[in-house]
Fold:
Amino acid sequence: MPHVDAQLIAAAQKDPQAFEALYCKYRIKVYQYFWYRVGHDRETAEDLTQVAFLRSFARISLFRNQGYSFLSYLYTVAHNKPTA
Structure:
C-alpha cells in the first residue's frame, strides 16, 4: 500500500472526518467502475458509489493492510454491492 494511503487510512481510523481525503482521492474511480457496470446510467452510478463509500466508511476501523491498495479494497466493496 502506498505510504500516503497508509497515512490517510490511519487518520480516518482515528478521526471520521479524515475519511474525506480517501473519498476525494478515489470517488471518480469507484464512480467509473459503477458507471460502466450499470450501462452508463449516471444517477445509478452515483447512488451506488455513495453506498460503497458509506459501507467502507462504516468499516474503516476494521481495515487492515494486507498488501493491497485501498482502491482494491474499495473495488471489492463495490463489487460485493448488488447493482439492482
